[in-house]
UniProtKB/TrEMBL annotation:
<comment type="similarity">
    <text>Belongs to the metallo-dependent hydrolases superfamily. Uronate isomerase family.</text>
</comment>
<keyword id="KW-0413">Isomerase</keyword>
<protein>
    <recommendedName>
        <fullName>Uronate isomerase</fullName>
        <ecNumber>5.3.1.12</ecNumber>
    </recommendedName>
</protein>
<dbReference type="GO" id="GO:0042840">
    <property type="term" value="P:D-glucuronate catabolic process"/>
</dbReference>
<comment type="pathway">
    <text>Carbohydrate metabolism; pentose and glucuronate interconversion.</text>
</comment>
<dbReference type="GO" id="GO:0008880">
    <property type="term" value="F:glucuronate isomerase activity"/>
</dbReference>
<dbReference type="InterPro" id="IPR032466">
    <property type="entry name" value="Metal_Hydrolase"/>
</dbReference>
<dbReference type="Pfam" id="PF02614">
    <property type="entry name" value="UxaC"/>
</dbReference>
<dbReference type="GO" id="GO:0019698">
    <property type="term" value="P:D-galacturonate catabolic process"/>
</dbReference>
<dbReference type="InterPro" id="IPR003766">
    <property type="entry name" value="Uronate_isomerase"/>
</dbReference>
């Protein structure tokens, strides 16, 4: 079978609404992509090193691809995960595994993303299957030998206007410095301050992390006050390097502040490795309160995506380490969790707080009313497990009547799979066009209003929520 994405894919099936969706999509389909949260390594752009093979580019870093195959008995190591050496034959075999199991992805966004990538960027015209695996692999491998498939060339080809990476607070950010100083590259790539593990005082090795933080900041971190001063120092370092945001992911988004005396006591316990689980959670929530305070002072946008059981499959974590796709969503509560910080900083002129969730029950009940009141709160769009067409449509229906079109973040691709960025953003633009078109078809919006609304969703919202005016 030939591989050719339909031009009306993801648009409503009703002819009248579909025609409106086409018109709205045409207004935004060629807008530059703003990607304010993702996991593309900055050294790819800094060094512009050619990609070595199709598997390491398209399969190994893509959790969505890997977890589906794992659920059908494929070992992650067969897909290159956790492997420091992976031969050309192993790479080819991983691609054969993917193509032979292509039927597993029916009905998933992975199928849509990957088919768009293969068709639009690698010229593939046959559907993945056991029979076509080697043909597709060879075609992609041939493309990767050409200069137009190096990271910087793809940045331009993808029509990227802004790309944020995810970086450790103690990172020297040398790759970002190299990008900024290279006048031959005119894109915008910035770091993101990601302090999660430094805000988990119950984790193994946390005291050593505090030593690293002290060394990086030049500030003594043996006290609660010193810890916060060191965090402020590193946030300022990142901001000076171009960062526009900080990113946070914990089991819950709690921001309950401890007294300085209680925080100091628990901090000392944590440094000594004697803190209980409950006390570690209490100290972490106080640390998160301080991060909101810092954001209200330094103006870095604060994104939250809590509610995930990290490394749920212990054997995979033990064998391959963290961040290999075995994370599972949890129920999440925001109203009580964020109240302490919003009570103190919710009216701040500097604070932009963007909560994301995979618990769809909180969209209409908690996040939409919150964003519909607090000028500092923007709702994070569907991401991770729910950055899929049906979930995106449910999201718009859940939040728009309360928060309108202007209180969301803009689409977040959150991907390690570089080539999937334009396909993911295209899904969002098509689904949003369909949602807005429905309002026009039902005579709830005039066409001129709909045209303005779709522009806000794609262009205005990410610029507003992430404070990008003057940056791009």
């Amino acid at each position: 079978m030939n591989l050719e994405p339909h031009p009306d894919r993801l648009f409503p099936s009703d002819p009248t609404t579909r025609d409106i969706a086409r018109k709205l999509y045409s207004l935004v389909k060629d807008e530059p992509i703003i990607s304010p949260h993702g996991h593309v390594p900055p050294q790819w752009i800094a060094e512009d090193t050619p990609f070595t093979d199709p598997t390491s580019l398209l399969i190994t870093p893509d959790h969505y691809v890997n977890r589906m195959l794992h659920s059908h008995g494929v070992q992650l190591s067969e897909l290159g995960v956790g492997q420091t050496e992976f031969t050309e034959e192993q790479s080819r075999n991983a691609f054969r595994i993917l193509c032979a199991n292509w039927w597993l992805y029916r009905g998933t966004p992975v199928k849509y993303w990957m088919e768009n990538e293969l068709y639009d960027y690698f010229g593939v015209r046959v559907r993945p299957s056991a029979e076509t695996a080697d043909e597709i692999y060879d075609q992609i491998a041939d493309c990767l030998q050409r200069p137009e498939y190096r990271p910087r060339a793809l940045y331009k080809r993808f029509n990227l206007a802004f790309l944020a990476t995810t970086d450790d607070p103690c990172d020297t950010l040398e790759h970002h410095e190299a990008i900024r100083e290279d006048e031959s590259f005119d894109g915008v790539v910035v770091p993101t301050f990601r302090p999660d593990k430094y805000l988990e005082p119950g984790r193994e090795g946390w005291a050593e992390l505090m030593g690293n933080l002290s060394e990086a900041s030049g500030i003594d971190t043996t006290t609660w006050a010193g810890f916060n001063a060191a965090m402020e120092n590193r946030r300022a370092y990142f901001k000076a390097a171009g960062a526009i945001s900080t990113d946070h992911s914990h089991r819950d988004p709690g921001t309950a502040r401890l007294s300085d005396a209680d925080a100091e006591r628990l901090y000392k316990d944590a440094l000594a490795g004697k803190i209980s689980s409950d006390d570690a959670d209490a100290l972490r929530r106080s640390m998160m309160y301080e991060q909101v305070r810092m954001a209200s002072e330094d103006g870095l946008v604060m994104t939250l995506h809590p509610g995930v059981y990290r490394n749920h499959h212990t054997p995979s974590f033990t064998k391959y380490g963290a961040d290999v796709g075995c994370d599972i969503p949890l129920k999440t509560e925001f109203t009580d969790a964020l109240q302490p910080a919003l009570a103190d900083f919710g009216d701040s002129e500097n604070l932009h707080l963007i909560p994301f969730t995979m618990d769809e029950t909180v969209y209409s009940r908690e996040l939409a009313p919150m964003a519909g009141f607090y000028k500092s709160v923007f709702i994070g769009v569907p991401w991770w497990f729910i950055d899929a067409p049906e979930a995106m449509a449910r999201f718009r229906g859940s939040i728009t009547e309360t928060a309108g079109f202007t209180r969301t973040s803009g689409f977040i691709d959150d991907t390690r799979a570089y080539c999937s960025i334009p396909a993911r953003h295209d899904v969002s633009r098509r689904v949003d066009s369909g949602y807005v078109a429905k309002l026009v078809a039902e005579h709830r919006l005039e066409m001129d209003e709909a045209a303005e609304a779709i522009k806000e969703l794609v262009v205005g919202n990410p610029r507003r929520a992430f404070k990008l005016d003057g940056v791009i």
